[in-house]
């Protein structure tokens, strides 16, 4: 079983920190789970313009391949102006809806404004529905204040991540 954690931004480090923490928790809870971190910051992803996927650069094709070959996903995005990142939107545009059909997706968001914590419910979960994916019932909202020296310092958030990780594993097992 292959879990792909996607850090949905090309700037900053908090999104990747959260993604790594979730992947670490899941790997501890289920050592049989193969985990991989797709940090979009490390790729030269091209803008989706409707061309055949084979006509994009190697980085973009590699990202599409990684997503296509995963069995379930953790998608972590920063919140910019009340919504998810543009690079994540571009990624969704590059992926055929068939790729995520009947697969589990878990969402987490990182933001600097508590007013945005429902963005996952209102914007990301409907996209998963479009893809025909099964969405984890819980999600985690991590505020910028929950970090200290490039790690998550809020124990409540760490506990939420543990519960979220357990939900992802249990949901996948139930659907098998």
How would you explain this protein's 3D organization?
Residues 1-144 form the NADPH-dependent FMN reductase-like domain. InterPro entries: Flavoprotein-like_sf, FMN_Rdtase-like_dom, NAD(P)H-dep_FMN_reductase. The chain has 176 residues and is of the alpha/beta class. The protein has one domain: Rossmann fold (3-Layer(aba) Sandwich), CATH 3.40.50.360. Helices cover 42% and strands 23% of the residues. The chain has six helices and nine strands; from the N terminus they run βαβαββααβαββββα. It has helices spanning 14-29, 58-68, 86-94, 97-100, 119-131, 155-175, and strands spanning 2-7, 34-39, 72-80, 83-84, 104-111, 134-135, 140-143, 147-148, 151-152. Strands 1, 2, 3, 4, 5, 6 and 7 form a seven-stranded mixed sheet that branches. α1 (14-29) packs across α6. The longest helix is centred in the last third of the chain and has 21 residues, at 155-175.
């Amino acid at each position: 079983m292959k879990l792909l954690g996607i850090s949905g931004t090309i700037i900053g480090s908090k999104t990747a920190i959260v993604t790594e923490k979730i992947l670490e928790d899941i790997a501890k809870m289920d050592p049989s789970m193969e985990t991989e971190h797709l940090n979009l910051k490390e790729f030269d992803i091209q803008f989706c313009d409707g061309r055949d996927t084979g006509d994009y650069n190697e980085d973009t094709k590699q990202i599409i391949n990684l997503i296509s070959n995963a069995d379930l996903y953790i998608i972590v995005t920063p919140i910019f102006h009340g919504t998810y990142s543009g690079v994540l939107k571009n990624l969704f545009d590059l992926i055929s809806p068939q790729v995520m059909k009947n697969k589990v997706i878990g969402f987490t968001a990182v933001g600097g404004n508590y007013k945005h914590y429902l963005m996952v419910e209102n914007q990301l979960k409907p996209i998963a529905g479009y893809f025909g994916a099964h969405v984890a019932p819980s999600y985690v909202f991590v505020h910028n204040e929950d970090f200290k020296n490039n790690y998550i310092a809020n124990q409540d958030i760490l506990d939420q991540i543990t519960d979220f990780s357990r939900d992802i594993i249990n949901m996948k097992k139930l659907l098998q």
